[in-house]
Amino acid sequence: MAAAMLFGGASAATAEPQADAPAAPQADAVVMAPVAAPAVGIPAAESGAESAEPAFAPVSTSISVEVGPTAEEIAAEEAAAAEEAAAEEEAAAEEAAAAEEAAAAEEQDSESEEQSETREDDSASRSNERSSRDDSDSSQNNESEGSTDSEESSTKESAPAPSAAKGGSILATARSGIGTPYVFGGTSTSGWDCSGFVQWVYGQHGIDLPRGANAQGASGTVIPRSEARPGDLVYKPGHIGIYAGGNQFVDAGNPRVDTTERNIYSGSWTFVRVG
Fold first, then answer.
1. Would you say residue 134 lies in a domain?
2. What total of structural domains would you count in the chain?
């Protein structure tokens, strides 16, 4: 066996070495058996640790995303706003129309009253004209009867001018009624119409005037405008007031102006002196 090993060793020396060839076991070599390493025990974790929850528990989170109004919602809101604005405009227009109708009705009532008084005055004027013509004819026929009749006729044509104190006192009373509401048919400070106002003013000075503008205009003496004094009557068919001097008078005109001092507006006015 030793010779074979020597022969084999010589053959191996002459042969080319081969890479990674394992060395042949030598005789009498001691083969070392692998030694098993002793198992190392790892201490078991405490029983409490086994049931413990993980150190980092998952966190439950929720993300809220707000979404703006859609195009349909925006369009619906705009349409609702437009409808509301249209309804408000319609309501405002209806209120304005109602106010105009009320004002027109008041104006129509005032015009109706003036027309009624105008008709009454026309009748009274025609009666006065007939009476004036009769008086004129009688005066012409009786001119030869004496100077007494002539003096009476002159007195009838021109009334004596009232004293400044009396006229001023009547005007002051008229001005005290400024602001009183116009009330058709009224005769007191709670509300009156034009003739009710004049009747009240003169009544405060002991002068009893009839009711109605036409009757009051016929109750005194007609005078030229140039001779008019404060306190005289300013009359036209259907309306009457109290002269304040210049181109002013105090009257209860209508529900729009109530009782006020204002310009004598255009019309066929007559100045009348009472007493």
1. yes
2. 1
Calpha distance 129→146 (Å, rounded): 25
Task: Kindly report the CATH number assigned to the domain that includes residue 245.
Answer: 3.90.1720.10
Q: Which percentage of the chain shows pLDDT scores above 70?
A: 52
Q: How far apart are CA 122 and CA 132, in angstroms?
A: 15
Q: What is the DSSP letter of 204?
A: T
Any idea of the CA torsion for 193, 198, 202, 203, to the nearest 10 degrees? -20
For 123-127, 145-149, 177-181, which range has the lowest pLDDT when averaged over its residues? 145-149
Task: Answer whether residue 238 is part of any domain.
Answer: yes
Do the domain assignments include residue 188? yes
User: Helix, strand or coil for residue 4?
Assistant: helix
* CB count in 10 Å sphere of residue 152: 10
Domain assignment of residue 220, given as a range: 105-140+161-273
- Among candidate residues 117, 232, 233, the one with its CA nearest the CA of residue 184: 117
Residue 16 lies in a domain: no
Beta bridge partners of 270: 235
Largest CA distance in the chain: 213
